[in-house]
Each structure stands twice: as structure tokens, then as C-alpha cells.
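Two records follow; treat each independently.
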Amino acid sequence: MDTGTFRGFEVALHDPGIALITFNQPDRLNGMTHEMRRDLIEIVFQAQLDDGVRVVVFTGSGRAFCAGDDITGRPRSYEGARPLVPDVTGSHRTPIGTYDALRSISQALNRAVRDLDKLSVAAINGVAIQTGLSLALACDFRIASTEARLGSGTLRFGLLPDEGGQFLLVQLLGVAKTMDFLMRSRIVSAGEARELGLVHEVVPSEELLERTMALARELASGPQVAMRLLKRSVYNAAEQSFAQALDDIAAKTAISDHHPDAREGATAFREKRAPRFNQWLEER
């Protein structure tokens, strides 16, 4: 996948196959733009198809993970950044324009992250509001700095969590707590976010990236085929009947049971040693 500086973020690749995406507009609290979303969608697409990528990590620079959309009205120059896709933006001037832009650009980023077969981690270094919150919730794991604050806050502007935040919150909090969270425009501390179940772990700010990369290395060292199939099956199960979930996991087991990682796991158990998974990736 491409590495370097793009519109609003940077990408670096770390062993063993960890793509670190860092939002690099701290003066604007890493506010999101159409151009930034378009390039992020492309990067996630590349990560999906690149065997050299096993885990994707998102984090921010400065005081924010991402404080929502960039509503400063000031144009961005993106000096030194390389665009990944043509500069096409959506129009919100008409109702149908808003609908199309949301589905094609804003919502498409969160859908791309959730549909990514590789595992993803959000390292929430600071404020994660609206766009930033929904992106973090679309990831599979969330580690927050003690400095982080999370919320939607869209009702403060008379707007809606139009990027899928309401769905992601219902999955994590349930209906009643989501109602309280959204209708009261709550912005919670990292500690309260942990109590609610919005983040998996809270660590001191100076330890955030180190802890996140340790988790990413752990995930990247696991049996990638089985983990990717299991990720999809877990998300499917949240929306399926029991019978459908059983059929889904059976179909995926028909793949994982016959993969070399399964044979290596059994051999390592018999030989009383740690398994060496992902040899199929290392050989490539």
C-alpha cells in the first residue's frame, strides 16, 4: 500500500504488517474534509488487498483524534501532500445532493473501515467528536488516552449523526443508553467512555501509541485467515438469527479448518511449542 503524506494524514508501515495512519492537521483538530475522506477510503481499500498489511491503526496528532468535520471555512493547501484520488467533492446544496454525498463519501469511509477484513484499532489521543467518534466506533478496538473526550454533539448544531454513529452506538450501548448519549449531546471523558463500553482500554497519554502498537503486534501475530473470518462472523451475528449465525460460521469454518494455519496450530500443540502462524504470508 502507499505510504507517505496524503491529504490530512500520513501512512507508515511497521512490522509485522501494521499500517499506522496518523491525522496530521492538529491546528484544525484534525477536522475531516471530503478530500481527506476520499484519500482515506482509498488507503483502506489498499490495506484490504495488500497481503503486507495485517492490522490498521488510526490515531491523531495534537489535541484531537478528530474533532468532527472541518467547519472553519478556510481552504486547505495540503502542502507536500500527494492526492490518492481525483479531487471530487459532494454537494449539499440540495436534498438529493446531501443524500448522495453522505452515502458516497461520508458514510463510505466508516463502511470501508467496518468492512475491512483486517483488524483495525483506534488510538484515541484526544477529542473524538462526531466524525471522529463514528470513525473510532467503526474500528474493532479502541484504546483511549486519559486526555481523550468522546461524543457526538450533532444536536448542538441541530444536525444528525449522519455517518452511522447512531447504529454504531446502539451496537455498543443498546437503545436506552444511546438515547441518553445522543439526545443529551453528551461528551464523556475517557474514563466514562470505558465504563460505558465505548473503549476497551484507557492509558496515560504518553503510553498510548506504545500500548496501541503492542496490541497491533499481538493481533498481527495471530492466525490471520481465521481472525478475518471470525471478525466478519462476529459482526454478522449481531444482525442474524441463531440459525443464520450457525450457518455463517460453518461456511467460514470450511475455509479455516483446511488452511495451513490450522495444521500448524495442531502440530504446535502436539509438540508443546508456540505456533508459527502466517507462514503463507511470510513466504510471499
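The next record belongs to a different protein.
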Amino acid sequence: MLLIFEKSRRDSNKMNIPPADVDPVDITQTIGEEYLRAGELPLPDVNEVEAVRHYTALSKRAYGVDDGFYPLGSCTMKYNPKIDEWTARLPGLAGLHPYQPVETVQGALQIMHETGQWLCEITGMDEFTLQPAAGAHGEMTGVMMIKAYHRKRGDEGRNTMLVPDSAHGTNPATANVVGYKVVEVKSDERGLVDLEDLKSKLGPHVAGLMLTNPNTLGLFEENILEISRLVHESGGLLYYDGANLNAIMGIARPGDMGFDVVHVNLHKTFGTPHGGGGPGSGPVGVKKHLAEFLPVPRVVQRGEQYLLDYDYPDSIGKVKEFYGNFGVIVKAYTYMRALGGEGLKEASRHAVLNANYVKHHLRDEYHIPFDRLCKHEFVATARHQMDASKVSALDVAKSLLDYGYHPPTIYFPLIVREALMIEPPETESRERLDDFIAVMKEIARAARENPEQVKSAPHHTVVRRLDEVKAARTPLVRWEETENA
């Protein structure tokens, strides 16, 4: 498929623009002549109908949850109710401006306030901020508050953050960005935090432990209360990565497990499309002893009125302009109101049921390293296929494309060889899961009987297998005009 620049033909996009009715301005007096472009801006010259056809053709090559099953582990790519999108586009919400006087946006502030209260109830926290724009941004906000807490207590020697070896990659990255030294905690033979290794690494230098529960292997940390006790007795705090909250939503609360701070991915758990570069939202909740450090402004209720309160001298300040990605918050608010408490519990139950159903039916063809009750996701591997025919997890993933399925997450978590991390969310039907299971079994059969077919997949996509090493090392990410263009 040609690039839009390659479709350009000089003078094909002729438009009759009326002459300007204002005096020209000498822009060099404003920004300086050295910053002006020397030649014309090389935009593609394409007429309207060809431009529409080009981008329509591109859209047909995209794949999303509206097209089919998206079993990405740790990503919760579930179907999202269209009423959420409709609500966020209501003129009275979509047309607001963040600088409007608070008396003119009382409905929006009420939505934000109630969303925070509901998230407190769901997570067991005392206060919430909706400012963070995504999960990793929420992590940064939470870890910054942990740092502010220790600093105010004069505990400056706590310079280390503990992170499990199965953690999401954003956890160690976040701790490093905030200025902490990162120390890895090992997993035991059951895929859980190794308590003895954790004990050996605790001490007066530890600021906290970042933990996902259920963890990235889809397993619930059975010793979470003991973990919490150990961390708190050493003077550290417990951070909850809410990426997997959809597995326990409405059933178990991080606050009851002993966590001090939690971030929630509204764009994964509460009905907003995740991925594709769209806006996210990563609200952060805290227990009372961290509330004074929350970002400002905070949405508060005074009698019948909602206000934006900046009067928190120990706040870490703003982490995002204005008050968060409001449109995403509206979608999550709609999702929660539509389902209610029992509906949210049911969503979690179905997510867990679907994961265990798929795992059960794949265990004969694929290696399951932790073959016991999982939560919303599980890790299978291509170890059998690799050992017998040198068919890798990547080969299995590429082969899935030929059947119209988006592949699961592969090679993660890093502690599992040839990992296939599968998350069949609650929105997928049994019929869809049965078809996916059949396809996975067919790929396993092909790996035994005709491994080259799997190794050379995909065969029926727009492009065949790409050289991913070359793409990573010598990426071409922009078009350059040539004399013949």
C-alpha cells in the first residue's frame, strides 16, 4: 500500500480560498527569522476523494475489540459498551472547558467526586485523585506520595523500592524515575513472592514494595497479609499496581489486604478501550496517612456545592494539567452506574471463569507452568513445541494471525520461558472461547506434523512475516521527500 505522500500529484488538490480580509503580519518580529521554514511545507497533494479512500483503506487494516477476540494478557482488551462512548460525547460534558467557573460545571464535578468515592469503596482506600493520565502515570503519582511520606517523617535513608521479578515493566521503571534504587524480589516455585527472599531484602533502607495481586502470572498472592505485615513492620509501605483489579473487583479489596496506595486503570477495568494510543486514566487512591500528599486540586463537596480545593500544603502538586482525562472518567462512571455493585462482581467472576476454562482445555497441548486455579489470566508456554520442533511462542503468535485472532502477550513475564500470556476477558462468549481453543489446538497439531508451516506464518495476512530485528534496529518512521517524489 502506497503512503499518502507517494499518492501525491502536483495540483491535484485545487481549492479556491478567498483572499484574506486582514492585514498581513510580519511573523519575524514575534519568533525570529531563524526559526522560519526556508521552503514550502511538503504536504501531500491529494484530492479529497483519494484522501478519504486512503484513510478508509488504512482503517480496514486496523484490528480492535470491535473486530474480534483480543486475548492480551495483563491488558484487559474487553468489549466496551457503546453507551459509555455515547455518554462521554453528550454536549453538556464534551463541550466543557476546564477554565469555566465551578458554579457552571457542578455536574462534571459531581461525576468526578462520585467516581472517586466509588473507587474508594471498590479498593478499600480513603481518598482518591483522578488526575493521572494512565497506569504508569498513576504509579509515578503513588510512588511520589510514598517518597513524600518518608521525607516528611525525616526518614531520608529509605532509598530502595522492592519489585517482584514477575512485575510489570513499568514498576521498576517508575521507581527509578522517582529516584529509588530498585531491588528485585524472587518468585518461589509456586509463582508467588518468595517470603524468605523478601525478608532478606527488607530493612531501614526500603521505602516500599510494589505488588500486583493477582500477580502477572494470574495467581493470587496467598500470603498477602504476611507480606503486608513484614513490609509495614520494617517501616515500608505497600503499593498496589491495579492492572489486574478486574480479577477481584467487588470481591476483594487491596485496602483490606494492607496496601497503602493503589492505582486503578479506568481504561482497562472500567469499560474504556485500552491500547491504540488513546487516552487513559490511572486514578490513585490512598489510606488516610497518605491523603495529605494527594495532588491538587482535589474535588470536594461543601454542603450542596462541589469545589476544587488547593489548600493542601504537603501535596506533591499537580501531576497533570487540569483535573485528569475527563472523557475517560465519564465512560468509567457510566460503566459503574450501569453495572452496579453486583454487576461489577459478576464481571470479575466471569473473567476468572473464562481464564480457567481456556486454561483447562489447553493444558494437554501447551505447557502450563502453574497449573492450578488462576484468576483473570494465565500463562501457557510453547515449551513442548520448542523442544520437539523448534516452534517458538512467536511462531504460535504469528500463526494465530492466519485464523483472524490477535495473538496473546508473548515472552512475558520474563521468568517463564516461551511464555504465552492469555487473558480471555469476561465479555467473551463460550462459543468464541471454544473457537479460540480449537485454533490453538490446530496450531499445536501443525507444530507437530508440519512445523515449517507454523515457523513461516502468517500466510494469509496483508504482509508476511516481517524482519522485526531490522525494524527495531533501523526503523523508518518518517517519509523523506526525494527529487523524484
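Discussion point: The first strand starts at residue 127 and ends at 129. How would you locate this feature using only the C-alpha cell line?
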